[in-house]
């Protein structure tokens, strides 16, 4: 697992690497982002499994893929990467690979969520969904690391790369099991806590596997975007994504409540829905149709 270096560049010593340039701030903020993104995504997954129509279920699962893949994994990664530094080399990022890592995360995580979010909650589905969701986190991390440009060659320790993969897959599987098999708010929160730990653990284990071998001074030029230039677009993208997902989720919940032909209490008790005077299921729209605009005497026109 190596990045090729430019031709004729001679390798010198192994570079010193800093992962916590700003102290504990980066890992703490990164974990909070991973936890919140995981919580929103797992709530959406729970809503998807409760949905009775395919279109609603698909909408919830897409929202879950965006929040887990885009926020809990991708945004967490680059938040943590702001603390990454190589003192003897400039650090730059490839814009195309940075965007590609986001797409990889959302698509791969989405594939895992669609497996567990539909059909019977079997052990095989949970394991396969956890495998794909964890693989999405790993694929995003190493695609994002492929975007890193330094004045040297980046190498990885295979054993630690394997450990990071195991952490991601095990954590994702445990989180999905809590949500799908155990259920309830406590299970969702525990799943978000577990998935957040797994994503952060995978990231920092993968970073511990990293080595940078510097090229001789003056032989190469590092191209790409500096980390400072990424702060604003990533922050804006994160804010727009989370706000958009929140509004979309609220809209979906409202539509489901208005479209549902049963009151929640009746549904929970296993009773049929109350009927209007015409024998149809009672709904807000039925009330409006019955009442109509009132005249001055207080009777329907």
TrEMBL record:
Cellular component per GO, a single term: membrane
Coiled-coil ranges per UniProt: none
Source lineage: Bacteria, Bacillati, Actinomycetota, Actinomycetes, Micromonosporales
Annotated InterPro entries: MHYT_dom (IPR005330)
Domain MHYT residue range list: 22-213
Residue spans crossing the bilayer: 28-48, 60-84, 96-116, 128-148, 160-180, 187-210, 230-250
UniProt keyword list: Membrane, Transmembrane, Transmembrane helix
Name of this protein: MHYT domain-containing signal sensor
Organism of derivation: Phytohabitans houttuyneae
């Amino acid at each position: 697992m190596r990045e090729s270096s430019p031709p004729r560049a001679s390798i010198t010593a192994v570079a010193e690497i800093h992962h916590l340039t700003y102290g504990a701030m980066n890992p703490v903020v990164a974990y909070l982002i991973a936890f919140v993104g995981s919580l929103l995504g797992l709530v959406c997954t729970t809503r998807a499994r409760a949905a009775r129509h395919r279109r609603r279920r698909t909408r919830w699962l897409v929202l879950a893929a965006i929040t887990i893949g885009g926020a809990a994994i991708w945004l967490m990664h680059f938040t943590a990467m702001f603390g990454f530094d190589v003192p003897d080399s400039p650090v730059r990022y490839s814009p195309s690979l940075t965007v590609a890592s986001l797409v990889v995360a959302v698509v791969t995580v989405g594939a895992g969520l669609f497996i567990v979010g539909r059909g019977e909650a079997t052990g095989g589905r949970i394991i396969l969904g956890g495998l794909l969701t964890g693989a999405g986190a790993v694929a995003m991390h190493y695609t994002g690391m492929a975007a890193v440009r330094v004045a040297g060659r980046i190498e990885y320790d295979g054993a630690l790369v394997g450990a990071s993969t195991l952490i991601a897959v095990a954590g994702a599987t445990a989180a999905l099991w809590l949500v799908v098999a155990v259920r309830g708010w406590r299970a969702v929160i525990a799943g978000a806590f577990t998935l957040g730990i797994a994503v952060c653990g995978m990231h920092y284990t993968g970073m511990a596997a990293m080595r940078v071998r510097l090229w001789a001074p003056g032989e190469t030029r590092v191209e790409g975007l500096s980390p400072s230039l990424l702060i604003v677009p990533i922050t804006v993208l994160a804010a727009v994504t989370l706000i958009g997902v929140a509004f979309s989720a609220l809209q979906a919940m409202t539509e489901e409540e208005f479209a549902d032909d049963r009151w929640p209490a009746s549904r929970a008790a296993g009773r049929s829905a109350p009927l209007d005077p015409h024998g149809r299921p009672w709904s807000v729209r039925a009330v409006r149709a019955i009442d109509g605009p009132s005249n001055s005497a207080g009777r329907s026109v």
